[in-house]
Amino acid sequence: MRKILIANRGEIAVRIIRACRELGIGTVAICSTVDREALHSRLADECYCVGAAPSRKSYLSVAQIMSVAAVSGIDAIHPGYGFLAENHKFAHICQQYKIKFIGPSPQQIKQLGNKVEAKKIAAAAGVRLLQGSADPVAAETEALQVARRIGYPLIIKAAAGGGGRGMKIVHAEEQLKNRFRVAQSEAEAFFGNPQVFIERYLTSPRHVEIQIMADAHGNVIHLGERDCSIQRHHQKIIEEAPCPLVNKKLRLRMGNAALKIARACNYESLGTVEFLLDQNGTFYFIEMNTRIQVEHPVTEMVTGIDLVKEQIKIAAGEKLTRLTSFTQLQGHAIECRINAEDAVTFVPSPGKITDCHLPGGPGVRIDSMIYNGYRVPPDYDSMLGKLIVHGQDREEALARMNRALQELQIEGIKTNINFHSKVINHPAFRRGECSTGFIAELLNSGK
Length: 447
Ligand code: MV4
Description:
The chain has helices at residues 10-23, 39-43, 62-72, 88-96, 106-113, 115-124, 140-150, 173-191, 248-264, 296-303, 307-315, 394-407, 417-424, 427-430, 438-444, and strands spanning 3-6, 26-32, 46-51, 76-78, 100-101, 154-158, 168-170, 196-200, 206-214, 220-232, 235-241, 269-277, 283-289, 332-339, 351-352, 355-357, 364-368, 375-376, 383-391, 409-411. By secondary structure, the protein is of the alpha+beta class. It has 3 domains: 3-102, Rossmann fold (3-Layer(aba) Sandwich); 131-200, Dna Ligase, domain 1 (2-Layer Sandwich), CATH 3.30.1490.20; 206-445, ATP-grasp fold, B domain (D-amino Acid Aminotransferase, Chain A, domain 1, 2-Layer Sandwich). It has an 8-stranded antiparallel beta sheet, with helices on both faces. Strand 10 and strand 11 (235-241) form a beta hairpin. Helix 4 (88-96) packs antiparallel against helix 5, helix 7 (140-150) crosses helix 8 and helix 12 (394-407) packs antiparallel against helix 13. The protein is globular. The mean pLDDT is 96. The structure holds ligand MV4. Ligand MV4 is lined by residues 130, 155, 163-164, 199-202, 205, 207, 231, 234, 274, 276, 286-287, 436.
């Protein structure tokens, strides 16, 4: 692999360029008309403007991207996360053009992207699922039957969904018909597929995911877990590794469950297996992500492994060099996603960064595309980057995050930096006790 096209923007495009540089691989960036001065455009060896600001005109334009691929003579495409990263049709087109898509095969993306299919693989591999419908539920009468079997609360999810969009929680039978219909029409509207399925709803679980790595030679390992319970409107905002509630034994069990799923579908590339963990320490498979994730740095910090470099090496056909999974992790890492948004309304706040100071010192890492004078365009996700800290234990990581958040200054636009300080210093968070409902409770309490 000599040259890679990065079909993305923002901090992840920068992250991929950094990995390529260290591997001695050339980089080709693409950008939209509003991203000509973006950091990824500037840092890459070459950059091609592929279209107007709206994503579908640029970062989602397969025709434009493949034209750049053709003229720049690249060997592979790294899709990052979001945009085309989990688009099996795009992965298939790459295959037809003999360009390596850095990720699993089109068939694996398609199969695992359908949550009903993914759950079937997990069930066949002997991994525990939440009670619910084994297949998509098409009719209201069928939904009623499933509900009578599993009880309330239950949740209706889109088979083609992801990240919580279109999910409907149902607390009692009188809500069922209506929410079922809304779920179906939203599934069609958001994902182009009306299929929905039903699961028992866990009220305050932890969202714990296992990072896996699988090469083309049948070697699969896991790199422990990340706790991603701190979310707002299904946007993760703080992640950490390891999960404060997961001990060695549980890590081994969750890791093995993830490996069984990966092996069952002959998985190749990096992947993330998502579980819900309940108060009794029971974990349930919910879905699998076939991309590099936003929160990958916390795993890198506690394992010392560069996941993006490994992902590229796997795509190049190399064998995994480390063949043992991690039950022993080094210290503790926490990540705060820094967003350009209003502190009260959470509405995105694009604009020019008139001044910024990024923290440094021991155990501090910034993965970001911002610089002094950078203009944050209104057309994309509001995430400016991530502040990641590592410490010998959770307490040191928390103290570091607190100090790094104090040092971090971004002028000219509104950010969620102060919100992070509030969460990091909240007694429940400090005790490691926050489940997925924490942010909603915090905001409802008016503090
Ligand atoms: C659930 C759940 C509880 N029970 N499924 C949200 C994102 C998607 N990946 C899976 N998600 C969840 N699925 C069942 N059966 C809880 C979540 C969930 C969540 C729900 C409400 C508010 C915040 C949440 C944060 C993480 C996960």
